[in-house]
Design brief:
Layout: E1 2-4, H1 19-30, E2 36-42, E3 49-55, E4 62-66, H2 80-87, E5 101-105, E6 115-119, E7 124-125, H3 126-129, H4 138-153, E8 161-162, H5 171-188, H6 194-205, H7 207-210, E9 217-219, E10 228-230, E11 239-242, E12 249-251, H8 257-263, H9 272-276, H10 283-306, H11 310-327
Parallel strand pairs: 1-2
Antiparallel strand pairs: 2-3, 3-4, 4-6, 5-6, 7-10, 8-12, 9-12, 10-11
């Protein structure tokens, strides 16, 4: 087997597999006769460890995604791969853009970690190709992003919160629970989470405003440029694939990372709302967005800590304080 890996430190969050482990996964997925010709670790993602796998006798490569060891997962990020697997039937409106699941094993009996094998999507990662297009054409990309997001948000569920549960009858319960989980993770990292606790208290006090959201909608979790593939040679940037939908949950569409990013700048991304539609601008909606922004900032604090980005962790505190000033009298 040819094995091509990304060199990482022993303390890095993402940890690769040995060749024998990859071969064992292939045999579990495709039978004892499976032979891995080559395995190439792919960069880009910051959570799962991902490989392009070429198998003897199989014309198309496949993608192996391996979850972090259970002990390395934050409580607010537990079993994300299982959430993605459970989300697949709900993501049927965009199935043509997504890889197919060919095999999955959550027993952890082969390598001690969850793993999933998916079909290999054609195209080029958007971060590698989008910049080669003239700025004037970028609106086409964001308009398609709006269409994809609207299709996902149109799917209604039976509860608020994680796709795999536990579910909540009220949106406020899901939001407050999520904020507390993130705060616990921050504290377990030896960081101060008092600001996140205050935000959870403010969200609880404003439960009536949060509970104006009565229909749980499917949220992408973190869909944005980095999670898309573009068609090579298209006259304008054209999305041909969507990846890594492992942070899906049920809630208010405005709480989705995608909506946050679409609102972040007044540039070509404003075309997102040409296809998605323009949500009503209300005082209650603006207050809820401040709550959602604290949740995003808390999750970013954890990610930056995981990546040893100390400056980014520090910057998260004044950012949360600014949102808190809008939430509390």
């Amino acid at each position: 087997m040819e094995l091509h890996v990304i060199q990482r430190s022993a303390n890095a969050f993402q940890q690769g597999l040995a060749g024998r482990q990859i071969q064992a996964v292939a045999e579990r997925a495709f039978g004892p006769g499976a032979e891995v010709r080559s395995a190439t670790e792919l960069g880009g993602g910051m959570y799962n460890t991902t490989y392009r796998i070429d198998l003897a006798g199989r014309e198309e490569p496949v993608v192996l995604r391996v979850a972090p060891e259970p002990a390395r997962q934050f409580r607010s990020e537990q079993e994300l791969m299982r959430a993605e697997y459970a989300s697949a039937p709900w993501l049927a409106p965009i199935a043509e853009l997504m890889p197919r699941v060919l095999a999955a094993d959550f027993t952890q009996s082969v390598i001690g970690r969850d793993w999933m094998i998916q079909s290999f999507l054609p195209g080029t990662p958007a971060p590698h190709l989008l910049g080669s297009y003239a700025k004037a054409t970028h609106s086409a990309f964001f308009r398609q992003m709006g269409e994809i997001t609207a299709a996902v948000h149109a799917v209604a569920g039976r509860w608020f919160g994680p796709v795999t549960g536990p579910g909540h009858a009220r949106w406020s319960e899901a939001v407050v629970t999520s904020l507390h989980l993130i705060a616990e993770d921050v504290e377990c990292c030896g960081l101060d989470a008092a600001d996140l606790r205050k935000a959870a208290d403010a969200a609880q006090a404003g439960a009536q405003v949060l509970d104006e959201v009565t229909v749980p909608r499917l949220l992408t979790g973190d869909l944005w440029t980095v999670n898309t593939m573009l068609t090579e040679g298209a006259p304008v940037p054209t999305i041909c694939g969507v990846l890594d939908m492992d942070r899906t949950w049920w809630g208010d569409p405005e709480a989705d990372w995608t909506m946050r990013m679409a609102r972040a700048k007044q540039d070509a991304r404003t075309a997102f709302f040409d296809s998605y539609g323009r949500p009503a601008d209300t005082e209650a909606g603006a207050w809820r967005r401040h709550v959602y922004e604290v949740r995003h900032l808390g999750a970013l604090r954890l990610e930056r800590h995981r990546l040893d980005n100390e400056a980014g962790v520090r910057d998260s505190y004044p950012a949360v304080a600014l949102e808190l000033s809008e939430l509390t009298p």
